[in-house]
Amino acid sequence: MSREGKLLVLINPQAGPGKAYLIFRKQVVPVLSETGAVYDVIITQHSNHAYELVQNLALDQYRAIAVVAGDGLLYEVFNGLGRRDDWEEALSIPVCIIPGGSGNGLARSLAYWRNEPVENGSNGVALNSALNLARGTPYPMDLVMIHTSSGQRIFSFLSFGLGILSDIDIESERLRILGESRFTLWAFARIAALRKYNVTVSFKRAAHAVSPPERFYPATRPAYNRSQTLQEETFSTPPQFPGKRASVPAASDLLPPCSQRERQQHRQLNHSLSYDDHQTRGDSHNSMDSDVSDSSISLGPYPSPDRVVETEMNPQGTSLSHKKTAVSSHKTCLKSNETLKDKNVEEENCDTGNSADGKICGSTDDALSKTNNMNCNSSSLPTTNATTPDGLSTNNVNNKTDSGDASTCMRNTSDSKEGLSDTDVNDARQEPKYEDARSTMPVSSRRKKTSTRKGDYSHMPQFQDGNSSDCEKDDAAVDENQRNEQQCGYNKLSQPVPDDWEVIKDEFIMVFASHQSHISSSVFFAPNATPDDGCMWLMILQGSMTRANVAKFLMSMDSGTHCTVPGAMMIPVTGVRIEPHDPTGLMTVDGETIPFGAIEANIMPSHARIMVR
Ligand SMILES: Nc1ncnc2c1ncn2[C@@H]1O[C@H](COP(=O)(O)OP(=O)(O)OP(=O)(O)O)[C@@H](O)[C@H]1O
């Protein structure tokens, strides 16, 4: 794959502890600069910003989309892409996750799979992810298409289901202030008031399914020889693990291809890295750790001017013309020292995100006259510039007095030799495209409670059920979608499950599946999962499980040994239908609440592409 194309970087300034923007500046920018990558940056301004943006984005101008956030923003990206007419192709644009949220399940899964260091926590993973973005190659990753009884079609890259894990995740939101310990606290509460769900769960076992569950976790993880060149690390031969993993056939041997995309081409990755990622990784960890926690930071160099492509983006995300760069962040703001001539930057964390009080997070200066405050769709806003200590680049700081549904586009451009890069503000007010759907769809309980921070996904792709088909629409694009689904063997909720599916109707404490090894940094849910293994790892906790075993199960999830707890059953599947019979409850996809009801999930083997080294 060409490394010459532009990257699109999406940053959620509100993700996790609110350090996504700092992570970008401290860990990603230096790596991108060193590799001469050209990139555009968009800082999301509100829930569903990314979801809306990627639906109209001119994808061919980008070689990859990077997300500096938690898993929630990537969920928006995939589902926005899945909403497009060219959804099948769009979903295969290479994506890169740089962990900046509280969950970071995908980033952790990839780090585990590639045996990358995680000792430094999310900072270490972030640095590796930055290297993936700058120097990586797209690798096939499974997606899961979920149809809901309310007519939604959702794309999942991580996990879904109902039961104790979803309950703890969502219900403990109210204790968010406690950080990660909210999960432990709520877990105890949930164990005390153990909830059982009446569910019919139907599934199609993956051809490489092996039971019992003891087989599903590796006793030890073999050393992954990092001294190998990446050329030698042929991705067509996934890392071998003891136990079942070694005998797992390639997904392509098991499952029908979903598209014309050439999986083989993806697998034969052509790595020719001269970049010393070992050195970079080793050198950078400590400094990054401390850096990110600093409120005052120095800015890394930007790409040299001859590698910079300056463009503007309209609200739909299509390229307009040559202009300048803007930075806007709810939480992290730049403050330039007096004038741009000083070439010094002080970066500070602003307490308030959206400057509702009109506080300008970056100071203005002469250079304002040089900036072009482009109005993507609406208001002009105060704009400031900042420059790096070495004067290599400047960025506008766009203070938003109304961040409601405005979008700010930051272009990374630089004019380093001048000590001043042209920057621009693209400020858009985007009307929610799916307002109608949003207003007619049920709003999840979680989103109601956290509406200022979280997105309501209940409005996401709607394919209102006619009779037998979920996806009836008049236009040709939808016909095409339906045809693709049929080709892939996707099942519809309105139809009975195929004869070769197994059906269990019972009481369960949990029915939950993951298609990645980790569903968060510390939950090692499916130890044998790899990004393209062509299956979902369905975990069922039987209703007969004792409280002690449930506690044991939850407590051993960080090590992956939970799979052997009595009452727990893990089954690799290619399709699963979950039909709850209780009137209420919580159901999640990739950590986001969806309307409670029946869902059917089918694997889309290797449909997405993820940047890895
Ligand atoms: N500027 C913003 N302000 C508020 N919410 C936003 C903004 N940008 C994105 N979001 C929403 O924040 C949600 C959470 O984002 P993300 O997953 O990146 O962070 P997180 O802290 O890891 O989330 P989680 O609480 O799910 O772990 C996303 O679903 C997205 O809709």
In short:
This protein has a domain at 316-429. 23% of the residues lie in helices and 24% in strands.
Detailed description of the structure:
- With 613 residues, this protein is α+β, with helices and mostly antiparallel strands.
- The chain is globular.
- The protein has a domain at 316-429.
- The protein contains 15 helices and 22 strands.
- β13 (383-387) and β14 form a beta hairpin.
- The chain has helices spanning 20-35, 49-55, 71-81, 87-90, 105-113, 121-135, 164-171, 181-192, 251-254, 263-267, 277-293, 435-440, 445-449, 476-487, 547-555; strands at residues 6-11, 39-43, 62-69, 94-99, 137-148, 153-156, 159-163, 197-205, 326-327, 332-336, 345-349, 372-375, 383-387, 394-398, 406-411, 424-429, 502-514, 536-542, 568-580, 587-589, 592-594, 599-612.
- The longest helix is centred in the middle third of the chain and has 17 residues, at 277-293.
- The strands form three sheets. It has a 17-stranded mixed β-sheet that branches. Strands 9-14-13 form a three-stranded mixed β-sheet, with no helix packed on it. A two-stranded antiparallel sheet has the order 10-11.
- Bound molecules: adenosine-5'-triphosphate (ATP).
- Adenosine-5'-triphosphate (ATP) binds at residues 12-16, 44-49, 69-73, 76, 101-103, 330, 453-455, 591.
